[in-house]
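Sequence, please.
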């Protein structure tokens, strides 16, 4: 958590035009993440998080959002849950993390309980299967859009494109386990992009 806060702080310092950290209350965190949890579907939730945190509330800059997303992807659990905890903790500490997490999880928890109750009747309903297929397609489209939007900087540098291709080939073609790719390619990335200090005689 300290590493995350340090990284987030450094991104603000490096951008002089960014305003001071906005005042965010636990109630605001709960209400905004409640909306995200209610209107988002599957992996597409990252797109909604970006729109809410960067475009609408402007609680985070683009760089801060990417930093939060990168940290979330390296931690166990889903990205959205990790991000809610990180963002909530950044603004309001433990109370903020609990408020954001509760808001995000509450709609889905209620919906799953309702679906579990009525699933027996519609288990073999073709309309239900078609609806789920449509939701899946929509989530894939949203993920593609947010990947292109937030990763556009990485699509302009040759080393980053190479890593993207290697990751895709490793997972999609050779079926390499994600943990192996993270350790190998992640280690190479850390080495290549490590901070370099100038040496003075």
């Amino acid at each position: 958590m300290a590493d995350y806060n340090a990284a987030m702080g450094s991104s603000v310092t490096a951008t002089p035009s960014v305003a001071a950290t906005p005042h965010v209350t636990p109630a605001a965190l709960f209400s905004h993440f409640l909306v995200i949890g209610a209107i988002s579907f599957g992996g597409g939730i990252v797109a909604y998080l970006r729109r809410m945190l960067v475009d609408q509330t402007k609680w985070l800059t683009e760089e801060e959002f990417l930093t939060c997303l990168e940290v979330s992807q390296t931690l166990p659990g889903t990205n959205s849950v990790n991000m809610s905890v990180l963002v909530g903790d950044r603004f309001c500490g433990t109370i903020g993390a609990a408020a954001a997490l509760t808001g995000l999880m509450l709609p889905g928890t209620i919906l799953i309980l309702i679906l579990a109750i009525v699933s027996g009747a519609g288990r073999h309903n073709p309309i239900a299967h078609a609806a789920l297929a449509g939701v899946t397609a929509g989530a894939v489209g949203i993920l593609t859009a947010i990947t292109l939007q937030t990763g556009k900087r990485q699509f302009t540098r040759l080393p980053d494109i190479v890593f993207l291709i290697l990751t895709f080939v490793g997972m999609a073609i050779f079926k390499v386990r994600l943990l192996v790719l993270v350790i190998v390619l992640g280690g190479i990335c850390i080495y290549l992009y490590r901070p370099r200090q100038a040496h003075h005689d």
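Residues 153-201 form one domain.
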